[in-house]
Specification:
The chain has 279 residues and is an alpha+beta fold. The protein is built from five helices and ten strands.
């Protein structure tokens, strides 16, 4: 692209043509560009840096040798203005530049929506992780407090229950960490595609750009935002104390998300309750 910067201004033919008028397809120096923008007929013309311009010329119709500036919506083909009265007579048409603007807008809207949703999911997952970690610590403290009320004979039962809490809570936390990793991957993918989108904004607007933007659109559509399941919650419930039933002194904990059916498993120093759904 940099070769275009060496061209000479096509108006004064003396200064370097550092600016390119997209509408006139001519190079202008700084002064001539200023004058061009002051004129009534050309005040709305668009410029780009000559160094950013793609060297190749615009695509031409193979039949009429004119610029391919339209898309035939009926045939899904790029055509020139003369094709409109020829074999495409009676069809509906769109300006290529309008199609590009529409595609860019659609891609940006979709990308923003998905990245925003990914950010929201990350915030919810991280918040749930913090709450869940605090709840786990609270349950462990409650279990220890209850265990301290019991003498040496129940120390083993306390240790077993804490291990079970950590084991089951680790499973739930691992699920959340996996969900967090997936959400961050979507966000990284979204940022990468956003960079591609910005790069395409600098690309010359012609028929080949439509395919590139459509390719980007397909990549954006592949970004999958997984729906969030119900987040786990952990709590501790005290058991009624009975002198003849040591296991009731420890109490039970539940991770409420799975609505578990508890199965009783006989232990040497009391009964251990296990969730049949989570194991």
């Amino acid at each position: 692209m940099a070769q275009a910067a060496s061209k000479t201004c096509e108006v004064c033919v003396s200064a370097p043509g550092s600016h390119y008028c997209i509408d006139c397809e001519e190079y202008y120096c700084e002064n001539c560009k200023f004058v061009h923008n002051r004129q009534k007929l050309s005040r709305n013309h668009q410029f780009q840096k000559a160094s950013d311009r793609i060297p190749e010329g615009k695509s031409r119709c193979s039949e009429h040798k004119e610029e391919l500036s339209l898309i035939c919506n009926t045939c899904n083909a790029q055509i020139c203005t003369r094709c409109v009265t020829g074999k495409h007579n009676g069809h509906t048409f769109s300006q290529i530049v309008d199609v590009i603007v529409q595609l860019r807008g659609d891609n940006e809207t979709k990308l923003r929506g998905k990245t925003n949703e990914a950010n929201q999911n990350i915030n919810k997952i991280e918040e749930s992780l913090n709450v869940f970690d605090n709840s786990v610590e609270s349950v462990i403290k409650a279990i220890n407090d209850e265990g301290n009320m019991i003498k040496q004979m129940v120390d083993k039962s306390v240790a077993q229950m804490i291990a079970l809490v950590k084991e089951q809570s680790k499973k739930e936390k691992d699920k959340l960490m996996n969900m967090l990793s997936d959400a961050k991957s979507v966000l990284v993918g979204g940022h990468t595609l956003d960079i591609k989108r910005h790069e395409l904004d600098k690309t010359r607007q012609d028929g080949s750009l439509v395919q590139k933007i459509n390719n980007l659109k397909e990549e954006i559509d592949k970004l999958t935002i997984n729906s969030l399941p119900e987040f786990p919650n952990i709590s501790f419930s005290r058991k009624a104390v009975a002198e003849d039933d040591i296991r009731q002194l420890i109490g039970t904990f539940t991770i409420s998300k799975c609505a578990p059916v508890l199965e009783k498993k006989e232990q040497r120093h009391g009964d251990l309750y296990r969730c049949s759904a989570c194991g």
